[in-house]
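Write out the 3D structure for:
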Amino acid sequence: MERHQVLLVEDDDNTRQRLMRIVDRHADLSVVAATASLAAARGALAETKPRVLLVDLDLPDGSGIDLIREARNTHPCADSMVITVFADEQHVVAALEAGASGYLLKDGASKYVAESILQLIAGGSPISAAIARHLLKRFQPQPEPNADEALLTAREREVLELVAKGFAYAEIADVLGMSVHTVTSHIKHIYRKLAVRSRGQAVFEAMQRGLIRPPG
């Protein structure tokens, strides 16, 4: 059976290589092109006929949302799925309005990424749990949050902002001049205060509450 072709757009070299391995190792999927910029992605899109676009939003020369919007017009048979660290409402809504049919956070397990691509091809709309929960909250009345419990310390904000930028725990320790054990301790406190269980959910909740800035 012919494998479904995936156009991958991700500017971080390590992440791009990891996602390429995830896709190519699956019996039903293959990477038709892997690019690191909006311009390169546009060139690859013009030369190939991918079944799925797996797109990061924050590219060095523009936004992946522009590519999704263009692909909807030039490749109507292709489905687009976002994979990013951005979990705020502005990015989610803009991507969906541009034509994305799925939205994943980068903390997803390898198996989950591949399964989400196949779910997209089958007509589904895979969305990370944190994103789905946020979209549901828009239609449900919510109690006022306990500001004292939700508020992060200045150091916890620094740690979480570096997490949002994709830094590993050891890298965060080097930047902030602390041990990896201390970084891990801060992460545990952040999870407890924000009532989350993963890095992606922590970044999402903190951005929604205005506790950290979106990575720039």
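The chain has a mean pLDDT of 87.
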